[in-house]
Amino acid sequence: MAASFNYNPPTEPWLDILYQDKDIIVLNKPSGLLTNPGKGPALADCLFSRVKAEFELAQLVHRLDLSTSGVVVIALRRKAERELKRQFAEREVKKRYLAVVAGQLIPASGSIDYPLAVDTEQAPRQKVCSLTGKAALTHYRLLQQLPDAALVELLPVTGRSHQLRVHMLALGHPILGDAFYAPAPVLAAAPRLLLHAASLQFCHPYSGKALEFTADTDFVTANGELNWPAQDFNC
């Protein structure tokens, strides 16, 4: 289980707004910032509380893990909240992630169909479990291979907790900087979890117009190439 941490969320920029209208606000959440508040005043600062301070009727419809960066949509009205939650629940929302994983990714593309359950002995960690796990499906594709690390595209169909992290671990390719699942050399290879919600596609809750929002990340260049040094993990 990951050790306790000193929560010190980034503050610049306070809110990285990608899009806003009267119904929704779309933001690029930095790694290290909670999406929703944790327990106690020390964990009160989060993306949602920052939005709520400016938009009183704001409602959360989905979240990213603390260490994951990328695109988040928040509803600014109740009717928008209900419609967006319906789209997420019925898997109409399309999500695309980028990650840097350890090792040589073979085969270069495929699907990971492993059911996931809470690891009751190490909560909040998750584990692959065919007996009690809930169905979880992720499609992956290699984008760039370095000697001991790979840039991959991850397309989750389901939205289980820690799904991408556990699925890549199950393939033998933990994500760099993952404090929950990566062995020590892979954890130490990055100062943050190299997992980024690069794009989000959904329909506007009122107009029904198809929308897609994207956000850049520090570990991928503008040309779509891995911006991370080659590593020798020996693990």
TrEMBL record:
Q: Which GO terms describe its molecular function?
A: 23S rRNA pseudouridine(746) synthase activity; RNA binding; tRNA pseudouridine(32) synthase activity
E.C. no: 5.4.99.-
* Residues of the active site: D65
So which domain of life are we looking at? Bacteria
* Every Pseudouridine synthase RsuA/RluA-like domain range: 23-169
What reaction does this catalyse?
A: a uridine in RNA = a pseudouridine in RNA; uridine(32) in tRNA = pseudouridine(32) in tRNA; uridine(746) in 23S rRNA = pseudouridine(746) in 23S rRNA
The record's InterPro entries line, in alphabetical order, gives:
PsdUridine_synth_cat_dom_sf, PsdUridine_synth_RluA-like_CS, PsdUridine_synth_RluC/D, PsdUridine_synth_RsuA/RluA, RluA_PseudoU_synthase
One GO biological process term: tRNA processing
For this protein, the record's Pfam families field holds: PseudoU_synth_2
Q: Which Gene3D superfamilies match?
A: Pseudouridine synthase
Q: Which UniProt keywords apply?
A: Isomerase, rRNA processing, tRNA processing
Task: State the protein's purpose.
Answer: Responsible for synthesis of pseudouridine from uracil.
User: Which family is this protein grouped under?
Assistant: Belongs to the pseudouridine synthase RluA family.
Official protein name in the record = Pseudouridine synthase
Q: Which species is this record about?
A: Arsukibacterium tuosuense
